[in-house]
Amino acid sequence: MRSASPRRPAPHWRKGERRTGGEMDGGGREELDMEVMKPLIDEQNSDGISDEEHENNFLPVEKHYQLDNEEGITFIQTLMHLLKGNIGTGLLGLPLAIKNAGIVIGPISLVFIGVISVHCMHILVRCSHCLCQRMKKSSLGYSDTVSYAMEVGPLTAFQKRASWGRYIVDFFLVITQLGFCSVYVVFLAENVKQVHEGFLENKTAPINVSATSSSSEKRSTDLRIYMLCFLPFLILLVFIRDLKSLSLLSLLANLSMAVSLVIIYQYIVRDIVDPRKLPPVVGWKKYPLFFGTAIFAFEGIGVVLPLENRMKDTTRFPQALNIGMGIVMTLYISLATLGYLRFGDEIKGSITLNLPQDIWLYQSVKILYSFGIFVTYSIQYYVPAEILIPAVTSKVEQKWKLLCELVVRALLVCSTCAVAVLIPRLDLVISFVGAVSSSTLALILPPLVEILTFYKENLSLWTIFKDIFIAVIGVVGFLTGTYVTVEEIIYPASTVLANATESISADLNATNLVVGLK
């Protein structure tokens, strides 16, 4: 068992109920705050919990989701957690996603994916309720819901391997969370690099065009160097094993990101180009990249059950989910569309990279958002660490446990940095993580769980068709998105060639200008 840290009393689970790492499901909750995260992680450490935490353990089955007033969270708190759990770096990458789909098909597809994602969240909640009643459990997380659905399903092969469901969810959860961390490393490096180079350019005023070109070449530093500079700080950050210690930083991070979004909005609403100048539909070759980025942004399904488990009045959770995700969809679609309309084909992997480098207000946006992402790294990292580290430390002697845990933590951070170094393109990392793991958690598993859970209740043909249709969309997105992203990573020839051509053209224009002036 890992070394204990200060804990708040856990929700009232039924005595003797098995708690697993699956209860920690949180893929996509990019800023889930301490109040919700900490009890979820602590659930897996139920061995040796105190008498206080066993008080009133036996709850009637019909109240399997009801918590007392002290433990439960209110409707407004639930709404805020849903918003924070779905707004992060994925939001800033959506304007580029629209570019990969088209100014017409992009927003329509975002609405479609958003509606399906919210529907899958409702499916998961309904299945969890039903399985809690059948299995006489007080509450279930995502991984246990999948495991029990396989256990009660019609196929003997699934029943015998029901535990695989838990492992599958935990595996994709780890991939998703560590993928988020890799995205954060690229995001931090790109934004800090731009701020640093912008500061140097403003500090030394150029004398002429040729001098500017020469000095900028000297000042340009490889993006990977910035990533490696962040590595020791990230390792020190994750050595803080108690999330409660980060609560103040988390609050500041949330505020800084909110302020940044307001400034970004007020900038992009100016000088919007005529939509007719932008392509309404882009070739299907790029559409899988759009899908990966969109599902990366919408994949907040892991936060749903933990929040509902801690809500005082769970009958209002569907309403909170609809309102919260409605706000998220409005934010996503508006920023994505306006961002693409503002910058057109010049849009980058994060919209912050398109902000001016010579105005301190917009440079401060990159600093503020980078601070928020830096703090959020530790929160995203916490879940996979708590799944993987106990499995490793359980194999070593007690006196070596702490050292072993710190080594594993450092290695996990190094792995996220290594992925960022190998794929130093923010848009591709986001699309890859979204296609591989987010599509599985958000689109493929929930409809299959619904079929397994309710097959005895004479599911209508429409429901079966709908669930299969959603799962097929997830599988197709998984396969095509992964293929196209990997191809872009391995063979970036077209992108490199285009960039090289633009660079040569710019250099020739600058040379002609200098000659003309002489």
| First and last CA, distance | 75 Å
What oligomeric assembly is this protein in?
single chain
- Number of helical stretches of at least 4 residues: 19
Q: Helix amount, in percent? A: 55-70%
Largest sheet: none
The amount of beta strand, in percent, is under 5%
Helix and strand pattern: HHHHHHHHHHHHHHHHHHH
Q: Number of DSSP strands?
A: 0
Given the helix and strand composition, which structural class is it? mainly alpha
Can you characterise this structure?
Helix 6 runs antiparallel to helix 8. The protein has 518 residues and is mostly helical. The N terminus and C terminus are likely disordered. It is globular, with a radius of gyration of 24 Å. The protein contains 19 helices and no strands.
How do the strands and helices of this protein lay out in sequence?
Elements: H1 34-42, H2 51-54, H3 75-86, H4 89-101, H5 105-135, H6 142-152, H7 156-160, H8 163-203, H9 209-219, H10 223-238, H11 247-268, H12 287-298, H13 304-309, H14 317-343, H15 360-393, H16 401-422, H17 426-454, H18 461-490, H19 493-517
Helix pairs in contact: 3-14, 4-5, 4-12, 4-14, 5-6, 5-12, 5-14, 5-17, 6-8, 6-17, 8-10, 8-15, 8-16, 8-17, 10-16, 11-15, 12-17, 12-18, 15-16, 17-18
